[in-house]
């Protein structure tokens, strides 16, 4: 259902790209493709959306949750119901392994997003891009959920955890040896890594492959500017010495 939600929301990318993931937002911010204030508003909105969605789920399934846990909100144990709202590590999986899992999954996600979202990529139409994103999230979910539920979106974990803290208590942040931070830090590191792997690839292609039609990113333009300034200083120095 989460993948279907991603597909439906990303249909808005046909006209204007939707931001549903703070890790994606911060990755683009690291490339200066977004403003800081704009990014903060996006992230707050993403977390609030996940918080409110958790409240809706809790209300809709309130009776079923009561039947399962007997009206006693449990975070751990055989009748625990809190883990339906956020990701949790599988038994025996340490936090460092979950951190690596989140980093790898989000790195792959961002490389794909950058490639598909490249304006010079004519291999896929704008109408098909939202569906390709949904298929990718589905594939990542199927391939990488075994360790800790595929935490590639900090809002999808932190927003519901904030809501459950109001209902189940603050222990939701301490459970599983303070696992919650891995579902926040891991995706952010992975997202920044992913966007710069892709942008680094573009820089290499522009520099050494002599391929036309590759987008000129800010990093390349800044590098060109520094090289031009350096050449100007050298020419100026040579001219002054010759005179």
TrEMBL record:
It holds the Pfam family MIP. PANTHER family: AQUAPORIN OR AQUAGLYCEROPORIN RELATED, AQUAPORIN-9. The chain crosses the membrane at residues 40-62, 102-121, 133-152, 178-198. One of its GO terms (molecular function) is glycerol channel activity. SUPFAM superfamilies: Aquaporin-like. GO terms for cellular component: basolateral plasma membrane. Keywords: Membrane, Transmembrane, Transmembrane helix, Transport. Gene3D superfamilies: Glycerol uptake facilitator protein (1.20.1080.10). It is found in: Membrane. This is Uncharacterized protein. It comes from Rotaria socialis. Signal peptide: none annotated. The lineage of its organism: Eukaryota, Metazoa, Spiralia, Gnathifera, Rotifera. It is a multi-pass membrane protein. Belongs to the MIP/aquaporin (TC 1.A.8) family. Its main location: membrane.
């Amino acid at each position: 259902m989460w993948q279907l939600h991603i597909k439906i929301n990303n249909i808005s990318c046909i006209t204007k790209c939707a931001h549903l993931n703070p890790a994606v937002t911060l990755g683009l911010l690291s490339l200066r493709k977004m403003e800081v204030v704009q990014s903060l508003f996006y992230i707050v909105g993403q977390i609030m959306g996940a918080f409110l969605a958790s409240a809706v789920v809790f209300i809709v399934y309130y009776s079923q949750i009561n039947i399962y846990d007997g009206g006693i909100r449990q975070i751990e144990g055989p009748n625990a119901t809190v883990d339906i709202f956020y990701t949790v590590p599988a038994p025996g999986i340490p936090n460092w392994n979950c951190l690596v899992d989140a980093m790898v999954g989000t790195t792959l996600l961002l490389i794909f997003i950058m490639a598909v979202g490249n304006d010079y990529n004519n291999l896929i139409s704008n109408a098909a891009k939202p569906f390709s994103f949904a298929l990718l999230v589905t594939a990542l979910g199927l391939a990488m959920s075994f360790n800790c539920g595929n935490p590639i979106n900090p809002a999808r974990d932190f927003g519901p955890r904030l809501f459950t803290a109001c209902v189940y208590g603050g222990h939701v942040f301490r459970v599983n040896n303070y696992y919650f931070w891995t579902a926040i830090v891991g995706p952010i590191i992975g997202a920044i890594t992913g966007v710069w792997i892709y942008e680094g690839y573009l820089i290499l292609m522009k520099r050494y492959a002599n391929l036309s039609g590759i987008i000129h990113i800010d990093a390349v333009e800044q590098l060109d500017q520094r090289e031009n300034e350096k050449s100007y200083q050298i020419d100026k120095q040579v001219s002054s010495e010759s005179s």
